[in-house]
Amino acid sequence: MIKGLVGAIALSAAFVAQAGGSVESIIDQAIAANKEAKSLGYEWNVTGKAIKAAQAALKAGDSAEAMKLAAHAKYMAEASVYQANDEANMWQMRVPK
Amino acid sequence: MKKITQLALVLGVAASGYALASPEADRAAFENFYEKRFPQVTEGDFINGVYSILPAAREQWEAIEEFPPYEVAIEDGEELYNTVFANGKSLADCFDTPAQRENYPYWDADRGKVVTMEMAINECRVANGEKPYKTKKGALAAVSAYMSYESRGQMINVQIPTDDAGAMAAYNAGKEIFYTKRGQLNFACSDCHMYGSGLNARADTMSPAFGHASHWPVYRSKWQAMGTLHRRFAGCMTNVRAKPFKAQGTEYANLEYFLTYMSNGLEFNGPGARK
Fold first, then answer.
1. How distant is the alpha carbon of residue B56 from its chain centre?
2. Is B11's pLDDT higher than 70?
3. Minimal CB count within 10 Å: which of A12, A28, B99, B218?
């Protein structure tokens, strides 16, 4: 169930990414979003590896795989930025009163 | 329109109240949360972490404590504490006694930062021309184990000077880290160690955060070694797939400041042994 959901998200992200530009451009967007997450203190430890995997696939000439990996990396980087912005307002709700 | 403005004002005050509660109000609510969740735990026993709520596991842990795996670290730490630096001084010259736990962490108003005991150990080394120890394990954990052992029985009594904006900012930053979800798994410290305390994550029961700061450093069976509190913070963040902060950096020092303050009134009982 969860695997299916993650797969669907990755596929939809890949579709959106493909519609949005080249592999290089998607990787650049992933790097930029990951930098932003890092500056906010919310970098995920899986995103950097995903970006490197996309770069490696691109270097190896497997553009379809590179696009899939780049889209996933971009999705994670942007999700971590979303998490940072969302949590800025949400964390107080968990403080017991 | 007037009613809408009044409602917005009330909601605004209520919302800001979450963030602006005084440290003492936070601490009282924190303690109350755990006392209500675990009414069977006797007063002061939260310093024993997950073993305060798991009687069967406690028996095994108490057997381990008869020949504690941190004993070697205490001996090593004592030796390092008294080892003479190249300039003829030693760690013993920086502290009037090794029993220092009750003095840390504290807000250093002059430097505008929270100082932990491990930070002070390394600052002593650097001030005397030595290289600082690595911050998660090894020599620093050993010295910390010795000093914690000498400090056993001291009461946790962290001071938050509420009239100092810097201290309050550090306290609130630590508090924010504790309650904020991070990483790909989207977990906050409080998700596991407050609202999930007593529940299982795979085969392990999640420990209550009340008392968490009392027993460091720890010999952890998973590590097969000693580790500092900041090593554990980093491990937790890695577990939820977040990039950890730097050990003895500002973020974890602030988190330690908050978390230790939450356990004010409990005893220091480090070093400890955990799974």
1. 25
2. no
3. A12
All CATH 1.10.760.10 domain ranges in chain B, comma separated: 25-68+161-274, 71-150
Are residues A95 and B179, on separate chains, in Cβ contact within 8 Å?
Answer: yes
pLDDT in tens, B157-204: 999 999 999 999 999 999 999 999 999 999 999 999 999 999 999 999
Chain A hits for B29, Cβ within 8 Å: 95-97
- Among B61, B243, B220, smallest CA distance to B136 is for B220
Is A13:A72 a contact under the CB 8 Å cutoff?
yes
Distance from CA of B171 to the nearest CA of A (A): 14
3-state secondary structure of B241: coil
Backbone phi, psi, residue A41, to 5°: 80, 25
Contact between B99 and B154 under an 8 Å Cβ cutoff? The reply is: yes
Contacts of B244 in chain A (CB under 8 A): 45
Q: Which residues of B touch A38 (CB under 8 A)?
A: 243
The confidence band for A8, taking pLDDT boundaries of 50, 70 and 90, is: very low
Give me the total of CB pairs closer than 8 Å, taking one residue from chain A and one from chain B.
64
* Cross-chain residue pair B29–A42, CB shorter than 8 Å: no
CATH number of B25-68+161-274: 1.10.760.10
What class is the B71-150 domain? mainly alpha
Q: Does B236 qualify as catalytic in the annotation?
A: yes
Query: Which residues, 6+ apart, have CB-to-CB distance to B122 below 8 Å?
Result: B132, B133, B135, B140, B248
Nearest-by-CA chain B residue for A90:
B180
Yes or no, beta carbons of B243 and A38 under 8 Å apart: yes
- Is A95 close to B18, i.e. CB distance below 8 A? yes
Q: For residue range B117-141, list pLDDT tens digits in order.
A: 999 999 999 999 999 999 999 999 9
CA distance B92 to B238: 35
Chain B residue with minimum CA distance to A96: B29
